[in-house]
Amino acid sequence: MSAIPGCLDKAAVPPKLRPMSDFEPRRFATDAEIIHLGEGLLACRLGKEEWTHEAHLAASLYLLSERPDVDVDAEIGGIIARFNESVGTVNDDSGGYHATITRSYVAGIRAFLRCAQEETLVARVNALLASPAGRRDWPLRFYSKARLSSVAARRQFVEPDRAKLP
What we know:
Elements lengths: L30 H13 L9 H14 L5 H15 L12 H17 L5 H10 L14 H4 L2 H5 L11
């Protein structure tokens, strides 16, 4: 990983997972945008089109760093499943909430936050999006595609088969 235990290090990302030239994450301009996503997720007040990869990560970082009253480990599955249902997304064996992907990102966001030096919420989220844990293929660093795409991994957290989560 890096010189600081638990921190993410870009150099530690295997070459095949280094930045994708065809994907640049959407950056956020204000803390208010991120608060809107986090609180909108909790209250099921977001439009389906707002629930992007970047929104998932921004809302998760917000919940982990700004909402100590939310037990992310215990509640995130229900929060996301409830939101999905509110916008007509079915949570089943082939779509909707994916427990293992969510938990792998939560682990990555926590590792990122342990070392984050950015002072504002928006700066932390944008730095997360630029980090290894912000990548769309982050879970594949720890899971084979077959294991990650299994019904068991969607329904409940399964342990990684490639590398230990941070």
